[in-house]
Amino acid sequence: MSETEALETHLQELRRGTAVLACLRLLESPGYGYGLLEELSARGFETDANTLYPLLRRLEKQGHLTSEWNTDEARPRKFYRTSAAGSRLATALTHDFHAIAAAIDALPGTIQEHED
Amino acid sequence: MNTTSLTDRYVDAAMRTVPEQQRQDLGAELRTSIEDQIDGRVENGEEHSAAERAVLTELGDPDKLAAGYTDRPLWLIGPRYYLTWWRLTKLLWAIVPVCAAFGVALGQTLAGAPFGAVVGSVASVTISVIVHIGFWTTLVFFIVERSAQGADAGLVTPWTPDDLPEVKERRATLSDLIASLVFLAIAAGAILWDHFVGAVYFADTGWVSFLAPGLWPWYIGGLLVLMAMDALLVISVYAKGRWDIGSATINLVLNLTVAGYALWLLSQQQLINPEFFATVIPTDSADTVYTIVTILFGFGIVAIAAWDSVDAYLKAHRQR
What we know:
Number of strands of chain B: 2
Oligomer: heterodimer
CATH topology of chain A: Arc Repressor Mutant, subunit A
Largest sheet of chain A: 3 strands, antiparallel
Strand content of chain B: under 5%
Structural class of chain B: mainly alpha
Number of strands of chain A: 3
């Protein structure tokens, strides 16, 4: 495995849970699949469509999202919205994420200047 | 509508494996999402059919997407049951085919089948037993994996340190040595007793030997020499502290020599005293008994020699 492949794998591992957190926070105001996909990408949470769509279903099944068909527009869309349980989960995840970030900052060792 | 045909086909393919009651809702949502994504690309100046193709390519295999929607596992046996499945399969493979092969060979020989037929049926039974064990064990775990829906089906108990296997005895132990020497001494004593005294006593004929009297002195002498060599071998293994490939091979050669001679004598009807059964069972059935005992004796010799040889190699392998 080359260095860039290894980097890709590790970054993917690291980002795995962040899509859930971002969805729950963004869907405090209702949104639909494609719109959410675009917004996630615009906000720096690059997510594949084939990951996001099943994820929304799973969160709905767990009761963290509620859904409703909106037929007002020409193309009917299924809108998702974060439920009370989803909000609590988002809060918990955000706190945990901050705690992890603080713990990483407190780690010893020098960090090289990041090059893009 | 030729332009939507790919999307139609994709949605249809994805919904095929989705449960009936979710199909309409999921299908409609998936179609809308695909059309939204296509429109997004068309607004950026892509041609419609190229955009459709790109969106569907990105979504990937529809069956895989459907599996994501319905939480269906995309593996035969997942990590939860893999170790249990593999341990059980290995255990069954280690025990059942050997027993089946031995049983079939014994049964066929007793029934009087010719040698080639015995070999043929042993081979085919062994292969089919191995394949059957693999298939049915895997099928059961395949079903458990899917019916449990990711929950614990009670097949796997939580691991505790008590489950750790004992460390395999690395050294050749004193108890092994004593057991081998005692066994050899008893066997040698029994052979000599059988020859000089006899195996059973009858009032009219006196003592009758089990082994044929013609074996004395050369064959029995040779056997005693081989047994002495076996004793020296186990002593040297104890002195060296462990079995290695060399001593296991010497053990194999000794076993092959003893078993080979014994089987050859048995097939020549020179091993067992012909008087023995005629005296013990003075009826017409003595011949049948003689045949059956000969076969059982032969299989016993092969089984013991095979087990002893394999055991030595296993120990040599383990103690590397």
